Amino acid sequence: MASLLVKAFVRDCEQVGDTRVRARYGTLSGAVGIAANVLLFAAKLAVGTLAGSVSIVADAVNNLSDAGSSIISLLGFKISEKPADRDHPFGHGRTEYVAGLIIAFLILLLGFELGRTSLDKVLHPSPVETSAVTLAVLAGSIACKVWLWSFNRRIGKAISSSTILATAQDSLNDVVATSAVLAASVVSLLTPLNLDGYMGLAVAAFILFSGYGVAKDTLNPLLGQAPDSALVGEISRKVLSHPQVLGIHDLMVHNYGPGRIFASLHAEVDSSADILQSHDLIDNIEKDLAQEMGIQMIIHMDPIVTNNDTVNALRQTALECVQRVRSDLSIHDFRAVLGETHSNLIFDVMVPVDCPVKNHDLCTQIEAQLREVDPRYNAVITVDRGYQVDYGERHG
């Protein structure tokens, strides 16, 4: 059925990299979620009210919140589809993450309120009337939520949407929560035990857990999380596949929403090569990354000396001294200004962002190592902190 819905309502469904196609997928997911959850809310509210069950009513309200979440998700996809404008030069793609964050807030608020109501039911229990209709509605709800989980999971994976994948996870949480309510209803039907308030607390706990997960998944890209290591590795591999590129560093990846990735890096080339040929190479690499990976890349060209044995030896010496301080450090942009009484060794040191040693202390330790090799060496060091990547440079 999922395939039929996609084919019927998502034009050009294979073109998942197209923002318009993504919006169609998001619209379909939102519309299906709204319809299913409104029906479940109405059915559960009716049987829960008739049975006097706070846990069933809580589960019904949870479905209503899911419908509201689907509306917000749908609006988020529609807004994110808008092209770039003067005020938003990188597009509106992050609206999808904002929608997910609003959904998370609503889920957490709902979980808190339902937990408070259920606690009151535990402290002041009242009889629950369970019927075959009640059990049938709960069982049907479980089957519907299992299908919604599968449907949204498929769409979320197809377009790499954290918002829709969070919606799928929320449906799976609902399966567990409704199963707990169903179990409580069966127990109350077969025994004198009244677990209604306790199961209401369980439902509230699942809702809070779900809200936390959605908030985490949508807040990280808004705060600027580190890019996926596989993506960084693929960018590095493609750039370094050109033998004229001797090394790369300072790779930065910016996510402005699904399908809107901008990146920049420095590519080291032989300083003796024809500058026009090197520039042409860099232009071609940028175009290839845009066509093959959909990434808008800006590459800064760094010319380095490769045919000077003295400079090459000093570069290797500097690298060895740096790695004696910490093995996870690396260097780039090495230059040397040689003199009779002292020589300036100028280079950048790449430091992991979680390194506990302060920049000043690292520089002091590195310079001490260099002076042990030759007291005339004077280190001029720039520290770069960021996520470490094994770029695979072809030089030391």
UniProtKB/TrEMBL annotation:
The chain crosses the membrane at residues 95-112, 132-151, 172-191, 197-215. Residues 227-303 form the Cation efflux protein cytoplasmic domain. Pfam families: Cation_efflux, ZT_dimer. It is found in: Membrane. Signal peptide: none annotated. It is a multi-pass membrane protein. The keyword NAD does not apply. Residues 32-223 form the Cation efflux protein transmembrane domain. GO terms for molecular function: monoatomic cation transmembrane transporter activity. InterPro entries: Cation_efflux (IPR002524), Cation_efflux_CTD (IPR027470), Cation_efflux_CTD_sf (IPR036837), Cation_efflux_TM (IPR058533), Cation_efflux_TMD_sf (IPR027469), CDF_Transporter (IPR050291). GO terms for cellular component: membrane. Its main location: membrane. SUPFAM superfamilies: Cation efflux protein cytoplasmic domain-like (SSF160240), Cation efflux protein transmembrane domain-like (SSF161111). Keywords: Membrane, Transmembrane, Transmembrane helix, Transport. Belongs to the cation diffusion facilitator (CDF) transporter (TC 2.A.4) family. This is Cation diffusion facilitator family transporter. It comes from Bittarella massiliensis (ex Durand et al. 2017). The lineage of its organism: Bacteria, Bacillati, Bacillota, Clostridia, Eubacteriales.
